[in-house]
Each structure stands twice: as C-alpha cells, then as structure tokens.
Amino acid sequence: MAMVSLTRRVSFSASHRYRRPDWSDAKNEAAFGDRALQDYHSHRYLCDVTVSGAVDEGTGMIVDLRILDRALRTEVVERFDGGNLNLDIPEFRDGGQIPTGENLAALIASLVQRALELGGARVPVTQVTVAEDPTLSATWRAAAP
User: Fold this and answer.
1) pLDDT single digits (tens) 86-100
2) Where are the domains positioned within the chain?
3) Which residues contact 80 (CB under 8 A, 6 or more apart)?
4) CA 20 to 30 Å from 20, out of 4, 98, 101, 130?
C-alpha cells in the first residue's frame, strides 16, 4: 500500500539562550559562543510537521485535518508562542535539555504524536523541521521501521 506524507506549517515566537547552569561562564562561552552569556534572544520560528500514512478511500485524506490542527495549536503554538523556552518549558528549564533547534524539533514530534493519538488519529509524525530564521533550521526524522 502506498504511503503519502502531509505537512502543516505553524509559527510561533519564543525566546531562548544556550547555557548550561552547571558550567562556568568560560565553558558556556566556549561551547555556545557569546550568546550563552547574553540575555535571552527571540525568534519567529517556523515549524513544519509531517505525518505519513495510507490514504483513506472514503475521505481521500491520511488524517483528519481538524485533529492535526488541534494538536499543532495546543502542543506547539499555545505551548511556545510568546514564551521563554528556558523558563516556561519544563523540558528546557535549568538542568534539562538545551533549547536548541534540534531538541525543540524532537520535543515537538513527541508532543504532537501524543496529541494525535489522544485525538484518535492513527498516523505517525515522521518529520519535524524547526527554523529559527531563513538561514538555520533543524529537522527531526522518525527512525525507519
């Protein structure tokens, strides 16, 4: 059976910085550059979430867009928009993960997958791309089965 992918884009604004609280200023600067020592900085993120599956013969779709849109609204836009990733998102608080694009893409994949399943959608999230700006993005891809 053929598989089809569907991608929906959302955007949100959030601030962050790269810094490990258990490292000295010098070690943080060596690892993350001068941004580790500065105040938080903001981005207008673009986030593409891709799901894949077989096309339903009755609807012609692989997922109910209402379920996908609800998952993206609650798990991405409402969760991150206007916030500080380091302070407002438990996974990125001090001692947690560094709020890099890579870690953000992986977290979004997990959050959206859970929301889709709770909403009754039976499609996997297969790719998430998070772009901080036109020159920098990170992509998470599901492992091949």
Assistant:
1) 999 999 998 899 999
2) 4-141
3) 12, 14, 45, 89
4) 130
